[in-house]
Fold this sequence. Notes:
- The complex is a heterodimer.
- In chain A, 74% of the residues lie in helices and 1% in strands.
- Chain A contains 20 helices and two strands.
- By secondary structure, chain B is an alpha/beta fold.
- Chain B folds into two domains: 2-127 and 253-313, D-Maltodextrin-Binding Protein, domain 2; 131-227, Periplasmic binding protein-like II (D-Maltodextrin-Binding Protein, domain 2, 3-Layer(aba) Sandwich), CATH 3.40.190.
- Chain B is 47% helix and 19% strand.
- Chain B has helices at 2-25, 47-58, 60-63, 78-85, 99-108, 115-118, 143-152, 169-179, 191-200, 210-219, 264-277, 281-290, 299-322; strands spanning 36-40, 67-71, 93-98, 119-129, 131-135, 158-161, 184-187, 205-208, 222-227, 251-259, 297-298.
- Chain B has a six-stranded mixed sheet with strand order 2-1-3-10-4-11, sandwiched between helices.
- In chain B, α2 packs antiparallel against α12 (281-290) and α5 packs parallel to α13 (299-322).
- Chain B is globular.
- Chains A and B meet through α3, β1, α14 and α18 of A and α1, α2, β2, α4 and β7 of B.
Amino acid sequence: MLDQFIEGFGMAMRLDTFMMMSFGLFGGMLVGALPGFTTLMAMAILLPISFFLDPIVGIPFLLGIYKGGIFGGSIPAILISMPGTGAAVATSRDGYKLTQQGKSRKALDMALFASVLGDTSSDIFTILMIFPIAFLVMQFGPPELFAVLLLSLVIIAATSGSSPLKSLVMMMLGLWLSFIGTDPLGGVERFTFGLFDLKSGIPLLPMLIGVFAIPEIANVVMRNEKAKHLSSLMGKRLSKAEFRRCFRTICRSTVIGTAIGIVPGLGQVVAAMMGYSAAKNASDHPETFGEGELEGVAAAEAANNAVNGPTMVPLLTLGIPGDNVTAILLGAFVAQGLRPGPQLFEEQGATVFAILVAMVFANLLFLVIGYLSIPFFSRLVTIKVSILIPVVIMFAFAGAYVFRSDSVDLLMLVVFGIFGIVVRVAKFDVMPMVMGFILGPPMEYAFGQTVAMTNGNAFGFFFGERWGALSILLAIPVIGILLWRRMRAIPTG
Amino acid sequence: MFKNSIKKAATLAMVAGLSVAASLGAAKAEYPEKPITMVIPLGAGGSHDLNARVITSIIPTYLGQPMIVRLTPGAGGQKGTNEVANAPADGYTLLFTHNYIDMLQQHVENLPYDPKADFRTVARINYAPIAVIVRSDSPYMTMEDLVAASKANPGGVQMAHSGNWGALFVPAAQMMKALDISWNLVPYQGGGPALQALLGGDADVTMGFPSSIASHLDAGTIRVLATAGAERIYDDVPTFAEVGVPGDVGFMHRVVLAPAATPDAVIEKLGAAFKALESDKTFTRMMGRLGENIEIIDAADYEKMRVEQDAAYKELVKTLTSQ
């Protein structure tokens, strides 16, 4: 295998590979930065280009779009509190506070360094451990997934706000909102009132923009900040001391993100939230989290990027894509005559290693591209508030619309915007609601599968056959109570 | 080969450029005078998406206009289908769907459209025959073993499928009906996760299309017990017809539909362009790599098949839901 790796390493060192990768990284970053346009769309549209390229050029090109896009998504999250995906929600929390404090450049730099470090380490880990990971992936079925998702929700509720009770209320609301639409297992309509528009459920993007961006806009407008100062500063770049301070957090989040990437069906959202919660819990000043803490940005970004490496494993070793992004990559592989699956490494080992090596280099390349681009992006917040606010409003509505091109989504945006303003006044945190909404459906699905697998006797099943899932379930109350006690001790600011 | 692709790409660019110029110059031009949108009521990265990416990168050569893919997933395919049902019938909005969304859903749910009255066929592009698979260490060596075990222990065999009334669920249900057996049908979010459940030991049996199981078959991790249709796909594996499940069972037809009022001339023009794909070398090569066949059926013939599907699915849903 080592000679295959060395051969692959040599194959990846091509000028055109690096050029197309840079192109993909930059393009992906731009697309990801536009709210409403997802990386997935960009990849699907540009997929045919890769058909006509050499495998070692075409697939790194697509990987570049993917990686650039994930970072791109954190740009509006940090600058205008507009997370375009669930994965950017945690980043937005401290990132936008930093922007308000005139430190947007530091926040973006931190996001970039954390992303690249998290991604690179998880990619290298994946290359070294690809077969052990492939074995681990197979150990997770619906019961285990259900237990891990439930654990994640409990951790989020216990660590997000100052009042776990309020967090729980919001999370329940989020779970309920996720029930609206067609039940994923039985196909029964729930809470749709016979409206066709509600049949496919509430769309995520208008909710994200509504509850996170609209209240911020309202906040600026209502306080009439224009009178105070015309614009915010983009501030200085990240200093070495600040990076060193966050290094431990980045390492912790990378480990968490990589572990979560191994569990099929969890993904970036859970990773970002777990990384963030763990950093807050480990910190000796947890009260600064949510108030503009660089560590918070580092924790979320390192974790959600560290997911990327392991998610490639089921694709490469089993030919089974774990999510939509890897499904597009599968198409690209297959169209190139590379058949992901158990024999891929025997048949095409060198080419696959070349692609994996290119993946690592894409991260390093992105460090340069991102670092050079950040000043341009952070210039956005230096625009006069009287111009910036209308632009942000336009982005909010355009982003909500373009995602599905459905005018109902504009209505949803307004409703969630008003809702966001109201709950903010009542001092409720919307994050647990959003997390309940995002993680509710996969959790429900996994539970339904578990029940279906056992013909209804899920209880006996957990005790009789699924010791892994059972031990996670039993650990949940203990972890929940410990975290709750610890968080209650935090002085509220 | 690479040179060829470049040539193709250059031709494509030229055709696109020329057609834009032409549409700007003369307003009276005949159909198609602007880009055509092909709506897919399914998500990104699925087999429809991939097939469509190949189709839309080649078909401009024959239509003189680009074809744009628009993914509109939601409500089990109903969202995108509804959109096309309500689109202007001018040939600029098409639907790329499959037979289960097209003809089966109407019997399960109240739809906001009527698939029979609101759509007409443009062409069937290709089909994918399903295969019944088990792990290679499974005790079921043949289809007879599986049927015998299922009969001995009704509901005891775990069958992983890709979602209710989907491409694995329907053939499984048809098989259960034809052979008078009963499996415990467990849903997974797509064929990939269902295959993973089989490999991981959570499921005893599942189904898969040849293109997605080929690498596992070569690696010897799975065994095929039967394949859809009357003609053998693998020399030593019996067909559905041979094991007692005859008819149009287990075929996913990928089909292009248009709003019902679309003029005949437009349908003919589109049909001819799709037909031309059959003999396009780049197209056949790329579809071959995806592991997909190209078996174009024209509008008139597929309409007859739709009528048969309608009756068969109606009957199937009736038996399944009356229990």
